[in-house]
Design brief:
477 residues, mainly beta, six-stranded antiparallel sheet
Length: 477
């Protein structure tokens, strides 16, 4: 009898998420190649879903995985690393039961439908981090942040930043003004018509001012922009049908509907008063992440972001925990210019026709013009349907030139993080965590920010595999 083996579309990256990630204690990291720059002093923090299975059951969506924090500290004595799960109430309860107990972004509560009412949505604490002077916040946009010890990553519990109260959430993409120390963020309160809550905090994270604005239906708002004296929100034409989620018939992810007829709603707020300045409706698109925004010499707001033509990206990310992706969802770097008094789009253009995501600019440039945007991209010849991002790159807004790294086959980086040099103001570095699919190991790679297309200046080995995650930050010192 002849056995026919079905060809697999499984790629090397799938091995990074095939098993729950293993924590490791504070550990000196070995140098695999190169050396640590003398002026690279501080800590890289990263967050992401590290456990996509429990009790033999896969999560419903990549966004459901339990969050774990990686901290890599660079000092005069070398580099150390520590990796720990955020000890959320949901994580602890499900660990004890060895099964899923709560609804989440892509999962309904197990058992009878009334569990949807009894069981709160689990705060996965898996999306991003905010490093404050005395604590690290693990961020998740559907609820409050979890506070952690900056050194040990010990979870200290939920943090309401002195003003969130019981029902307000603190999203995963705060914007920090490097000059004033102010931190701006938002959260959405769901309802028949939802409420967009906007916060202004001081450098310690304590909320100083709040405002709210009504938005139609139940939208999905993931990120926003700070540009000069403005805060700008693009609300894409995605709306959640809450009724099926209430009765446990669909998860939040499955209840989301793409409604291009609504267009993209643009809201502009004054960052001093947090009051609405203007709003308009533009053509439909979807975006997860913005690169940056600023006000140009003509008084126009300029915003760079990765733009999708529809919401298929959500279904693509739903497939990721299975280890096989079969849906494309191309996003490319775009720039729009807005009239701040009307919120009308003055111009819109594609800057880069490469499929990518996770754009960042140097922290000192957030809200101001930045010559460079760093990002994750698919490699030039990669299978963009079934592969995940396999390179990092730098786009030059003055020359429109793209400089990209060559990581080699089956190497998968996460979002690049910019780190200034502590000794030389003209020097800076770009850090990323790379999964080596050839050897099933994770490493930290350090690049010269001016020479991404050269070999990394340093490679550090990590004690265990750290699955590809979402967002991180750099804390100097």
């Amino acid at each position: 009898m002849t056995t026919i083996t079905k060809p697999t579309t499984r790629k090397a990256w799938a091995n990074a998420i095939s098993q729950p990630a293993k924590e490791f204690p504070l550990t000196p990291l070995s140098i695999i190649a190169g050396k640590i720059p003398e002026g690279l002093r501080g800590t890289l923090y990263r967050n992401g879903p590290a456990r996509l299975e429990r009790g033999g059951e896969k999560v419903g969506h990549w966004f459901d995985g339990d969050g774990a924090i990686l901290a890599v500290k660079f000092s005069d004595n070398g580099a150390t690393g520590i990796y720990r799960y955020v000890q959320t109430a949901g994580y602890l309860a499900e660990s004890k039961a060895n099964k899923y107990l709560y609804p989440n972004y892509g999962m309904t509560a197990p058992g009878p439908f009334w569990n949807q009412w009894i069981k709160p949505v689990k705060n996965a604490a898996n999306t991003s981090v905010l490093a404050l002077p005395d604590k690290l916040l693990a961020l998740w946009e559907g609820g409050k942040p979890h506070a952690l010890n900056l050194e040990t990553l010990q979870t200290q519990g939920l943090d309401d930043l002195s003003a969130l109260g019981d029902n307000l959430s603190f999203s995963a993409h705060p914007k920090c003004d490097a000059k004033t120390g102010e931190i701006f963020n938002f959260g959405v309160t769901l309802g028949k018509d939802s409420t967009l809550n906007i916060y202004q905090s001081n450098s310690t994270g304590k909320i100083q001012q709040k405002s709210s604005s009504t938005v139609s239906g139940v939208p999905l708002v993931h990120d926003f922009v700070m540009a000069g004296k403005y805060l700008i929100f693009f609300i894409p034409p995605v709306r959640i049908n809450l009724l099926p989620t209430v009765f446990g018939l669909e998860s939040f992810s499955d209840a989301m509907e793409w409604k291009p007829q609504l267009g993209t709603e643009i809201l502009i707020f004054d960052r001093t008063t947090l009051s609405l300045v203007s709003k308009s409706v533009a053509e439909p698109w979807y975006q997860w992440h913005f690169s940056n925004g600023y006000v140009d010499n003509n008084g126009e707001i300029v915003i760079d972001f990765f733009r999708y033509q529809d919401f298929q990206t959500n279904q693509r990310l739903k497939q990721l925990p299975t280890g096989e992706i079969q849906l494309p969802a191309k996003s490319t770097l775009w720039q729009v210019r807005l009239d701040p008094q009307t919120a009308k789009v003055k111009s819109s253009e594609e800057l880069l026709d490469r499929d990518g995501e996770f754009p960042i600019v140097p922290q000192e440039n957030v809200g101001e013009f930045s010559r460079y945007t760093f990002m994750s991209l698919h490699g030039k010849n990669s299978d963009t349907t079934r592969e995940i991002y396999s390179t990092i790159a730098r786009f030059d807004h003055k020359t429109n030139n793209l400089q990209e790294a060559n990581l080699g086959e089956n190497h998968y980086p996460v979002e690049p993080i910019y780190a200034p040099d502590s000794l030389n103001p003209n020097q800076s570095w770009v850090l990323t965590v790379v999964y080596d699919g050839n050897n099933n190991q994770s490493e930290v790679w350090v690049f010269d920010s001016e020479r991404l297309d050269d070999e990394p200046v340093c490679k550090l080995g990590l004690p265990s595999v750290v699955p590809m995650g979402f967002h991180g930050t750099w804390k100097a010192g």
